[in-house]
Amino acid sequence: MAPTDIKESERSQVPNILYLEDSVTDAELVEYELRRAGIEFVLHLVDCESGFLDGLNRWKPDIILSDFSLANFNCLEALRLMNRAGVDIPFILVAGAHSEQSAVECMREGAADYILKTNLMRLASSVRSALKSSAAQKQKTEALAALQKSEEQLLQAQKLEAVGRLAGGISHDFNNLLTAIMGYSELTLRQLPPNDPLCRNIQEIKRASERAASLTRQLLAFSRKQVMQLRVFDLNVVVRDIERMLLRMIGEDIDLRTILQEDLGNIKADPSQIEQVIMNLVVNSRDAMPKGGKLAIETARVYLDETYAQNHIEPAPGVYVMLAVSDSGVGVSEEVRQHIFEPFFTTKEPGKGTGLGLSTVYGIVKQLGGHVWVYSEPDKGTTFKVYLPSVIEEADEYQQPTAPATVPDGTETILLVEDAEAVRHLARDVLKSRGYNVFEAADAATAHSICRRYQRAIDLLLSDVVMPLRSGVDLAKELLEIHPEMNVLYMSGYTEDTVVHHGVLDPGVNFIQKPFSADVLAIRVREVLDAR
Q1: End-to-end Cα distance, the chain
Q2: What's residue 8's pLDDT?
């Protein structure tokens, strides 16, 4: 008997009945009785063990009807197979009167009801009751599965959040140390003759500190505590701008294609961080294709609806700009995918990577209010999709930042306030070497004393933000009452403070992120002073 002809779009809404019966005549009588009662269903008739097992897997029945005994199979065996497999589907025995003792055994094994073939009057009500029970059980199962998935996503998000807080805290202290190491390396190199044997040693120290600084920047990105210089721009502009560099980076054995949607809309982000996201994803794809392959970068304007938001714990429904990076590489397993954004997690050989590339992508995207999703199958490739909120603001002019040709000097007076001694001494030495008149203080009380005693103008307050007892911001407000002509430049290795909220600088605030080099400090000080 063929299943009733129902459109595929409607089939999922109509209950499936799996009927274990080897008499076509009896099956037709049962179907007629149910149709006469107004019950809609799709009937699947099977007459052996293999057909029964195949039907369970293929049709996912809502209810099972069964004769007691077939040629080589019976309902007791069917029930026991279901019990062993943990299948919980309403099972109704439809058999002759001579099978009453056997029916009792079937009820003990889990059958929901027993209907006599000679009296089918109660069949419709029994089937309705079973279908209602099946629907309730399905809803319960789906709700439990959805709850379990949400719990897993929440636990993963909480784990990443906890690791992020730890990373941010470590970076705060580590950045002070790196600022001193980087800065004094530069000052020492500047004082040594170029042919001095010590120059090579100092250069190695400087390079190592720069690599360490790069690691702390990535940790801060993961923990969502980088300082962002937000601009409004079209993502396609950034992709086109770095495409040539990406081609050089991936090599000739990888075929790169870009598929960029026109009228994409704008995003609000830090262009340099978006470049970092693209490059990290492309490098990850390149490393997954050691023998070459295909790499695609795609952009699109998409709407994430309520259904997507319910299945992915982070994003809110709305319009997003999507960046997708797909490769034909080795792919990753589900187990690896669960850890793929964790810092220092890597599947590469020792020495081949830090394990911070994808965690940096995760942190940058989350800090921008976006969402990153990965799909992969072993030996079939990987796709990363980044969703960034679309904005309706007009785009700013996007240009690559350029460094000044020379490091400028000055003669102004600067009040330096920093509780970390190594950083304070470095900043003092750098600024004095550039010609500035520098007063230094380790705390707010000393800074107040200097301001009250010094009668002439103080051109700049260079202050750490996070200090014991009083923040740099509170100190600046107090000192500006004594010297209102003074400019303020804040420095910090951590952004969870009063000048940076959610990684974005407050309007009009001058800021330099630790760790910084001696030249970067001198350039930033000059920029703030000249901006007056």
Answers
A1: 89
A2: 38
Where do you find CATH 3.40.50.2300 in the chain?
Answer: 8-118, 413-530
Q: Rounded distance, CA 303 to CA 320, Å?
A: 6
For domain 158-222, the question of CATH label 1.10.287.130 is answered with yes
Fold for 231-391, please state it: Heat Shock Protein 90 (3.30.565)
- Match 């520098």 to its residue by tokens: 438
Q: Which of 427, 462, 420 is nearest to 442 (CA)?
A: 420
Q: What is the pLDDT of residues 343-392, one digit of tens each?
A: 666 666 655 555 677 878 888 888 888 888 888 888 889 999 999 999 98
Domain 8-118 bears CATH identifier 3.40.50.2300: yes
Helix (H, G, I), strand (E, B) or coil at 231: strand
Enter the pTM of the model: 0.49
Tokens of 173: 């202290």
Q: Kindly tell me the burial class for residue 96, based on how many C-beta atoms sit within 10 Å of its own C-beta (0-12, 13-18, 19 or more).
A: middle
Report which of 122, 74, 64, 114 is spatially closest to residue 94, judged by C-alpha positions: 114
Burial 115-126 (b: 16+ CB within 10 A, else e): bbbeebeebbeb
Give backbone dihedrals phi and psi of 116, rounded to 5 degrees, phi first. -80, 140
Domain 413-530 has CATH 3.40.47.10: no
For residue 99, what are the CA distances in angstroms to 26, 94, 172, 272, 504? 16, 10, 79, 78, 77
Which residue has 């750490």 as its token pair? Answer: 464
Taking each helix axis from N to C end, the angle separating 75-85 and 100-109, rounded to the nearest 10 degrees, works out to: 0
What is the mean predicted confidence (pLDDT) over 233-239? 92
Q: Rounded to an integer, what distance in angstroms lies between the CA atom of residue 1 and that of residue 6?
A: 15
Where in the chain do CATH 1.10.287.130 domains reside? 158-222
Smallest Cα–Cα separation from 483: which of 442, 463, 454? 454
C-alpha count within 13 angstroms, C-beta hemisphere, residue 387: 20
> What's the pLDDT score for residue 1?
45
